[in-house]
């Protein structure tokens, strides 16, 4: 065990810090769940990729920097420290990308990964349906083979980034006689395909962060299948593992929120309600614990280990921490916590409300925390299947 | 940067785990409850042979030449086994205190020389399992294990004194955990017993507090894991409504929450061990965080394990309370939650505190 950075690791940090300081936009971008904001974030991704920083741990041939996971962690720390923009293509870079590396053909890797890395193609998720939420195996949307094409029919919903994305990945039932997890196939769909209709949905924060997607005899090539025919469930589980596990929510994100929370408390110490001081400190401790656990996981992965069901522990921990930090911030703010950013009296604290609303989605997306607790009980603790 | 134990470290841990599984069964612990000293001299000798007692001593002094990063893994196992022996008092706190006392500069009449002679005389015996050390630290009003100790290291203001047990008057204080040996110690400090004073003594006592709290945290990890294992095993076996109660989500989700708390306490404890072993400047903060996280995980595990067991868990006959009582006492020893929370708060809320992304790992002093 050696918890100090090597000179090479320190050098990498310095390099990332210098580049970010020179390139991170001085003014915050608008939300990527608006049309203007989406364009701004795509432009930022082009700058990031131009500097070679878009996909730090990916192989160079796929548009990455070819660095290891530890360097990625260091980069993430610098990224959040610099206040750099959120990643509009997180579905592509953190979820689909690793899945294509694991399940894709050489042709698929060459076709899709570089454009994911550059965010030239932004991705939406196509998991949930009106009757398949936590019970994802209840998927009804179909993909029927017709020559060298699939013909897609049905509906997906809560497609994150759906409103401003270019492509969607999702599960479709390819075997009409199949039930549950069997007979599903993982298909990559261009959203401009004829017969695909995207209908944005306004979220709790008023922005169109997700969408309904309707498929009406939409034809996509069979070559867009990821993994085997009828084998989509395993592919999707890998994607979900990436979502809950290491990459999507790097610890730096929560450490930065914890740092801001500490600063907020210090600025408002005189008026902060009782109990918030302890909560603030405990939130900081939890963010540190999450970082430590991630460093430990990365060390294990660098030693040849794999991520398994413990991704469900991660997902519960970061999502509940995020809610707790924002609840604490709003308690500290009192009535100002009710103000939107544009309210004159908000004086720059309105972002806490906005990110509070977003934090509330954390225990829901990527598999609800109740489902994660089922996974922990059955797959990690070995308890009998629940009902 | 590598946050992982070596194969050798994990092998030592599993050796101690297997040993305690055989030698420190719940029946053996219950047998000790009924004994006069609540101490098993034979078991203690075997632990010394395994290297536990002198883990933190250089090999030249009969030790294993290990540091806190190794010791926490062993302590975790002593918690898992609910071992009643004075491992924290002696191996984790007493031994390094005596070891470090010999290195301090003399600030009083012959103290350093006395410390040197004392440690030369006692440390090899302690490492061999022939002597037990108890430590009276201001953080603990009662001195654990004083009744079975041969040597007492006692704080007196800004001084550290050493005396043999016979030179003090002990009053046994029966405690909630029958395996605990708590004593009030009455004694008379003198120049002849003083082995450190002033800054030297303060440094020794600060280090003792951090080592003690770290040891409690490590034991709490083992206690929490054992409580979770017991609760899971019971939930699989006990049937109601025609099925194992472990199939009910109401219980599954509680047990899952224990697992989450435990697994996010673990790296905090291991980091604190690294900080103590390598003298990281903010080790006191890391230790406090570890003590809070691990003992809260253990107490939470105790609470849920009891609930999962239902009425049978509320009996004296069921073994669950061996670990429940340990979880409760670990919360108090070497600083309770408010104490450690204050130490973390003072760091986090200070002007210019080094917090946020990139500040997780800090430098040695």
In short:
By secondary structure, chain A is an alpha+beta fold. Chain A folds into three domains: 7-88, no CATH class; 123-231, Butyryl-CoA Dehydrogenase, subunit A, domain 2; 249-380, Butyryl-CoA Dehydrogenase, subunit A, domain 3, CATH 1.20.140.
Summed up, the domain count of chain A is 3
Q: Helicity range of the residues of chain A?
A: 40-55%
Order of helices and strands of chain A: HHHHHEEEEEEEEHHHHHH
Label the structural class of chain B.
alpha+beta
CATH topology of the domain at 209-348 in chain B: Butyryl-CoA Dehydrogenase, subunit A, domain 3
User: Termini separation of chain B (Å)?
Assistant: 18 Å
Please tell me the overall pLDDT of chain A: 95
Polypeptide structure, described:
The complex is a heterodimer of chains A (387) and B (365). By secondary structure, chain A is of the alpha+beta class. Chain A folds into 3 domains: 7-88, no CATH class; 123-231, Butyryl-CoA Dehydrogenase, subunit A, domain 2 (Beta Barrel); 249-380, Butyryl-CoA Dehydrogenase, subunit A, domain 3 (Up-down Bundle), CATH 1.20.140. Chain A is 45% helix and 14% strand. In chain A, the strands form 2 sheets. In chain A, strands 1-4-5-8 form a 4-stranded mixed beta sheet. In chain A, strand 6 (196-201) and strand 7 form a beta hairpin. In chain A, helix 1 packs parallel to helix 3, helix 7 packs antiparallel against helix 8 and helix 9 (311-333) runs antiparallel to helix 11. The longest helix of chain A has 27 residues, at 276-302. The relative contact order of chain A is 0.09. The model of chain A has no long low-confidence stretch (mean pLDDT 95). Chain B has a domain at 209-348: Butyryl-CoA Dehydrogenase, subunit A, domain 3 (Up-down Bundle). Helices cover 55% and strands 10% of the residues of chain B. Chain B has 11 helices and 9 strands. Chain B has helices at 7-23, 26-33, 41-50, 68-80, 87-101, 111-127, 198-237, 249-277, 283-309, 320-332, 337-348; strands spanning 133-136, 143-144, 151-156, 159-164, 169-172, 182-186, 194-197, 239-240, 243-244. In chain B, strand 8 (239-240) and strand 9 form a beta hairpin. In chain B, helix 9 crosses helix 11.
């Amino acid at each position: 065990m050696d918890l100090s950075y090597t000179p090479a690791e320190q050098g990498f940090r310095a390099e990332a810090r210098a580049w970010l300081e020179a390139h991170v936009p001085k003014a915050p971008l608008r939300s990527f769940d608006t049309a203007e904001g989406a364009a701004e974030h795509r432009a930022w991704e082009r700058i990031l990729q131009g500097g070679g920083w878009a996909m730090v741990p990916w192989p160079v041939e796929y548009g990455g920097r070819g660095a290891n996971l530890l360097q990625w962690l260091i980069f993430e720390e610098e990224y959040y420290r610099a206040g750099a923009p959120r990643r509009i293509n997180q579905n592509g870079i953190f979820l689909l990308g690793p899945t294509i590396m694991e399940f894709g053909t050489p042709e698929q890797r060459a076709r899709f990964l570089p454009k994911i890395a550059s965010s030239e193609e932004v991705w939406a998720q196509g998991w949930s349906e009106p009757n398949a939420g936590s019970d994802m195996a209840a998927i009804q949307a179909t993909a029927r083979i017709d020559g060298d094409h699939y013909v897609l029919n049905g509906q997906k919903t809560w497609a994150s980034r759906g409103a401003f994305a270019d492509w969607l990945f999702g599960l479709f039932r390819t075997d009409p006689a199949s039930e549950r997890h069997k007979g599903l196939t993982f298909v990559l769909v261009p959203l401009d395909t004829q017969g695909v209709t995207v209908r944005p949905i306004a979220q709790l924060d008023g922005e169109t962060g997700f969408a309904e997607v309707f498929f009406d005899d939409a034809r996509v090539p069979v070559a867009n299948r990821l993994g085997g025919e009828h084998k989509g469930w395993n592919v999707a589980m890998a994607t979900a593992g990436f979502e809950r596990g290491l990459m999507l929510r790097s610890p730096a994100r929560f450490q930065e929120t914890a740092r801001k929370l500490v600063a907020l408390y210090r600025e408002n110490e005189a008026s902060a309600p009782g109990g918030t001081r302890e909560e603030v400190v405990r939130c900081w401790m939890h963010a540190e614990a999450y970082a430590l656990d991630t460093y430990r996981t990365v060390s294990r992965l660098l030693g040849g280990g794999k991520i398994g069901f413990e991704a469900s522990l991660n997902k519960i921990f970061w999502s509940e921490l995020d809610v707790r930090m924002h609840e604490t911030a709003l308690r500290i703010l009192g009535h100002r916590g009710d103000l939107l950013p544009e309210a004159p009296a908000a004086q720059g604290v309105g972002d806490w409300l906005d990110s509070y609303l977003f934090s509330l989605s954390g225990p829901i997306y990527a598999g609800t925390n109740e489902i994660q607790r089922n996974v922990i009980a059955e797959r990690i603790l070995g308890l009998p299947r629940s009902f | 940067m590598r946050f992982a134990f070596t194969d050798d470290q994990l092998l030592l841990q599993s050796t101690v785990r297997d040993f305690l599984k055989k030698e420190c069964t719940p029946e053996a612990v219950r047998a000790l409850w009924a004994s006069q000293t609540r101490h098993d001299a034979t078991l203690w000798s075997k632990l010394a042979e395994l290297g536990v007692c002198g883990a933190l001593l250089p090999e030249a002094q009969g030790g294993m030449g290990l540091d806190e990063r190794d010791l926490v893994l062993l302590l975790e196992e002593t918690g898992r086994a609910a071992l009643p022996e004075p491992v924290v008092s002696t191996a984790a706190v007493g031994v390094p205190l005596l070891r470090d006392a010999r290195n301090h500069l003399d600030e009083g009449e012959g103290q350093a020389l006395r410390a040197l002679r004392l440690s030369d005389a006692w440390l090899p015996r302690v490492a061999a399992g022939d002597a037990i050390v108890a430590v009276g630290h201001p953080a603990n009003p009662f001195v654990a294990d004083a009744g079975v100790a041969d040597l007492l290291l006692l704080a007196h203001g800004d001084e550290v004194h050493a005396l043999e047990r016979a030179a003090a008057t002990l009053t046994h204080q029966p405690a909630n955990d029958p395996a605990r040996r708590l004593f009030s110690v009455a004694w008379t400090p003198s120049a002849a017993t003083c082995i450190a004073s002033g800054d030297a003594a303060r440094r020794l006592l600060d280090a003792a507090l951090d080592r003690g709290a770290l040891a409690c945290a490590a034991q709490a990890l083992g206690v929490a894991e054992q409580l979770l294992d017991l609760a899971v095993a019971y939930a699989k076996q006990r049937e109601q409504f025609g099925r194992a109660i472990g199939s009910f989500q109401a219980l599954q989700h509680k047990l899952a929450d224990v697992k989450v708390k435990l697994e996010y306490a673990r790296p905090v404890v291991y980091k604190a061990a690294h900080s103590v072993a390598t003298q990281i400047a903010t080790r006191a903060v890391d230790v406090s965080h570890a003590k809070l996280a691990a003992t809260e995980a253990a107490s939470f595990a105790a609470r849920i394990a009891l609930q999962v067991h239902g009425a049978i868990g509320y009996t004296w006959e069921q073994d669950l309370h061996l670990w429940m009582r340990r979880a409760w006492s670990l919360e108090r020893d070497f600083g309770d939650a408010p104490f450690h929370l204050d130490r973390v708060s003072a760091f986090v809320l200070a002007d210019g505190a080094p917090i946020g992304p990139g500040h997780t790992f800090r430098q040695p002093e």
